[in-house]
Amino acid sequence: MNQSVEVKRQSASSSTNGSEANCCGGGASDTSTCWAPPSGACQYVNHVTNSTDSNSDKQEGQVTSDLQVVGSDHDAFTSEPPAPCGQRVAPPRCRNTFQCVRRPQSAATGPELQSRRPRLAESFSSRKQPSLSQNVPGWKLFGKVPPKQSPTKQALVIQQEFEARQLASCSLSTHHAVGQQSKRKVDFEPLSTTALILEDRPPNLPAKSAEETRRHRQQYEDMVAEARRMELKEAQRRQQQKEERFRQEEEISNTSLVWNQHILPHWDAMRSSRRARDLWWGGLPPSVRGRVWSLAVGNELNITAELYQIFLSRAKEKWRGVLGTDDAAELIRRDISRTLPSLCVFHKGGPYHNLLQSILGAYTCYRPDVGYVQGMSSIAAMLILNMDEVQVFISFSNLINRRCQLAFYRVDHQQMLRYFGAFQVFFRELLPRLFLHFQSSGVTPDLYLMDWILTLYVKPLPLDVASRVWDVFLRDGEEFLFRAALGILRLHQDVLLQMDLVGIAQFLSRPPAEEPLSNRLFSCIQATPLLSGNRKWTQVLLSCRDSEDIS
């Protein structure tokens, strides 16, 4: 019995020494490399693990309290813990954990060392976090969603399910549309009004009396009825605008067909016919407006495309400073930015900015005696919107060369006074009340007619109304410019009678653009024929020889 125990002890001792020799490199010298943890660290960890055997509930807290002494894993393998009583202190080791001297024989026996090694692994494994179950709420926090094991389906089943979902969505949308239609049919009841009038007062306030409740109910019904009337009126207005727009589009289409097929091919014979004049009065279609304008203006100056290129090249040389400085160029640049500001196409960087500058610059070189006058940019801009570049220059030059325009652009005072005198004659006869009010307020024709004539009504009127004024002006000549002025005064006569000098000047510089302005204005123009007794416009103009005829 004692013999067998002795044999077991020897075998355990030999196995311990063999494992130790294998751990330390198989009997290496004191300076050999050791890959095992230092004995001090093993003793320190064993000291920790021995304390965990007593009670499993205190294991985590004890390990934490003991490990607070160690700053890092490096310190755990390099620092010396305090040696327990009855044990030898190991000699100091190198700080490099991979280079350590050979440890002396531990005081522990083989069986004790064997019993401590499993606890070392247990101590490290006990520090690991327990694995979370998939049922824990935090499992899906970072996308750790386990793959769904969906059973395989046949293609026919998948197609049937898809068709069923499509039918369900269609039925849902139909039900939603029906619900929206039913909601539209419900009487209009503002929620805020209902809450303020029909609901009871809060408990901290006195309750409504029966009379007050009836009065509030009546007020609420009146408000709802008024809201219904306003909504119905707005719907009728929108419907009328829609029908009027459709009517105008159809009328423009039919008128364009007549112009293209019957009038324009036979211009010389048809331009003075009653049919052409009636269509002209109603406004030219935008598709034929440029062609009709160019034919109506004509080309008495015999300007060609080559002539335009010559004067354009001269204008560009002036802009570059080759032919000296030009004051008109700076005035043109400033005036272009103010031309039709609502369109923004003539501003710097716009699509028509350079074209407008070229037309005006070429004209200043073509007619240096006239030069550039503020307001010419509006006329050139209107032509650019309806013609090509060369035709714009031809029409612009011939239009400025007319007697009335040339008198105002060259500031011919004598001729301008004649035009103002003729206008005053018809003004006094057609609008006597407004004429006397203007006389008493000190409003003279040059205060508003100058701007209207120089820009041909492009500045004071909206673009569509100004285009229609241009249509009839190119048909009837300069007479229509003063007839249109009397039509504007007739249209706003009631408002102008209540204003003073400053108010009249501000109002006439930019009259308000009302919705049906074109039809209303031309109705007033039609009701204002330029007839003074039996005399027409030309006869009255010839009779105004000097400023003494101005009254």
SSE order and pairing:
Elements (H helix, E strand, L loop, with lengths): L1 H22 L15 H14 L6 H9 L5 H6 L31 H17 L28 H31 L5 H7 L12 H54 L3 H4 L3 H8 L4 H12 L7 H15 L7 H10 L16 H14 L9 H9 L4 H12 L2 H7 L3 H18 L1 H10 L4 H9 L8 H14 L2 H13 L1 H4 L4 H9 L7 H10 L10 H7 L8
Helix pairs in contact: 1-5, 2-3, 2-5, 12-14, 13-14, 14-15, 14-16, 15-16, 18-19, 18-26, 21-22, 22-25
Main attributes of the structure:
551 residues, mainly alpha, 26 helices, 0% strand, disordered N terminus
Word description of this protein:
- The chain has helices at residues 2-23, 39-52, 59-67, 73-78, 110-126, 155-185, 191-197, 210-263, 267-270, 274-281, 286-297, 305-319, 327-336, 353-366, 376-384, 389-400, 403-409, 413-430, 432-441, 446-454, 463-476, 479-491, 493-496, 501-509, 517-526, 537-543.
- By secondary structure, the chain is an all-alpha fold.
- The longest helix has 54 residues, at 210-263.
- The termini are far apart.
Summarize the structure.
The chain is an all-alpha fold and 551 residues long. Helix content is 63%, strand content 0%.
Write down the secondary-structure element order.
HHHHHHHHHHHHHHHHHHHHHHHHHH
Low-confidence runs of at least 5 consecutive residues: 1-118, 120-144, 181-191, 547-551
Helical stretch tally: 26
**Number of DSSP strands?**
0
Q: What is the averaged pLDDT score?
A: 75
**Estimated share of beta-strand residues:** under 5%
The class by helix and strand makeup works out as mainly alpha
Shape: extended
Rg over C-alpha atoms, rounded to the nearest angstrom: 52 Å
Biggest beta sheet attributes: none
Distance between the termini: 157 Å
Percent in helix: 55-70%
